[in-house]
Structures are given as structure tokens and as C-alpha cells.
Amino acid sequence: MNDRETARDLSKRLEKAYEEIARLEGALEDIATWAEGSTCEICGVKKMTETDNEGGCKMRDEELKAEA
Hints:
With 68 residues, this protein is mostly helical.
């Protein structure tokens, strides 16, 4: 393998490494968003957005039925 082929191979590996870094940065941003998210006051489940538990929090549904 000559120097030119080696440089080309290294360039491809570096490009793939940058793509992987970008992918991991996106995953870390998602984790940070989740960590900063709120927790359901009733069941304590962590949610990323206000709609994560929409229609899915059984404890909230039971509490609303008990109040009615």
C-alpha cells in the first residue's frame, strides 16, 4: 500500500469518525432534554414533553375517576 492509498483510507476513517461524533452529540442532546424534562406529579414517571403521558398515565386516570 502506498502513501496515497493510506492517506485516502485515513481520510475515509476520519470522515466516518466525524459522522459518529455528530450522531453521539445528537444522542447526548436527547438525553439532556430528557434529564431536564418534568416528572409526572402522580406516578413519578419522567417525561420529555408535556404530551409523553397524554392518555398513558394510569395513576392520573384513576385519580381523575376518584375525584368525579
